[in-house]
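Exercise 7. Given the encoded structure of a 303-residue chain, write a plausible sequence.
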């Protein structure tokens, strides 16, 4: 019987198509390709690899602690794996969508990943309206931090660094909220790292067209993962029956329903609708729930 081959371990820090940048425990970065035609690795994955020419071959993906992804009718888009937390960036200019934010939080809850909302551009007049929109999110226990990255960078850095310490944090949010500003503020050599990754991948695309892993410290213990902006966030992978359990404000009242299989649409004795009427669940949050539920139930009945 032949001996089992032991491959080296590395972390995926960027990817473009079937080309990946992996980083060894010593900090060396090199290009690697998956064995076979399929490339299922994502940023944050720990992989087993072996050298091949100037690069490497990914032989195996280690089991993941978690994986954040979105799924619509046409495709599944993975953001990153093995995360400690998610930082969902929003702003009043452009005004964030309540549905987009709710969907990101549902996906994080489903993946078992802690989430914090970061309200940027608080120096602008639109910030007050954004705060009002975020009140239901605060009320259900999601931490909300406020920063003005461009005009108050020192205060932003002081507020964020303790949260990011010794954690792998994915920065998530629609375009225009300031994700690139955040990365450039917290990662001194971010532009250099972008250049290295682009050169290695032979891709001239801007960093926000792909997910990239940046170290915040020389010891490589705190990481910030930048992701592309998104306009839509599909949740087709969520079971419709589980949706209320993934929304903390609805979950708090779902046990008060008369029927165990209540959909919280029109059933009599619904604890969730009663809480909406009492103002204990924001009407906007309930509308988003119905919107997502309609999508999921329509998908379940599609031939």
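Solution.
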């Amino acid at each position: 019987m032949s001996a089992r081959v032991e491959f080296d371990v590395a972390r995926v820090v960027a990817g473009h198509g079937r080309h990946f940048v992996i980083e060894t425990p010593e900090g060396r970065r090199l290009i690697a390709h998956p064995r076979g035609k399929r490339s299922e690795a994502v940023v944050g994955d720990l992989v087993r690899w072996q050298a091949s020419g100037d690069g490497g071959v990914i032989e195996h993906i280690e089991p993941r602690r978690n994986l954040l992804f979105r799924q619509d009718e046409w495709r599944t888009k993975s953001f990153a794996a093995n995360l400690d937390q998610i930082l969902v960036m929003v702003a009043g200019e452009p005004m964030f969508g309540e549905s987009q934010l709710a969907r990101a939080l549902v996906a994080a809850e489903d993946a078992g990943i802690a989430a914090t909302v970061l309200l940027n551009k608080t120096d602008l007049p639109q910030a007050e309206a954004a705060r009002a929109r975020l009140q239901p999110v605060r009320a259900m226990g999601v931490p909300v931090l406020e920063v003005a990255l461009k005009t108050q960078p020192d205060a932003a850095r002081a507020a964020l660094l303790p949260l990011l310490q010794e954690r792998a944090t994915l920065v998530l949010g629609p375009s225009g909220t300031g994700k690139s500003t955040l990365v450039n503020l917290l990662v001194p050599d971010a532009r250099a790292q972008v250049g290295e990754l682009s050169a290695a991948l032979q891709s001239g695309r801007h960093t926000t067209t792909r997910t990239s892993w940046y170290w915040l410290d020389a010891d490589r213990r705190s990481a910030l993962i930048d992701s592309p902006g998104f306009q839509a966030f599909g949740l087709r992978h969520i079971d419709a029956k589980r949706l209320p359990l993934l929304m903390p404000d609805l979950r708090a009242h779902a046990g008060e329903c008369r029927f165990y299989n209540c959909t919280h649409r029109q059933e009599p004795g619904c604890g969730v609708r009663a809480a909406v009427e009492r103002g204990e669940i924001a009407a906007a949050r309930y509308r988003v729930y119905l919107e997502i539920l309609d999508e999921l139930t329509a998908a379940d009945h599609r031939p």
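Remark. Helices lie at 98-111, 127-139, 153-164, 179-186, 190-201, 248-254, 271-278, 283-300. Students should compare their own answers with the one above.
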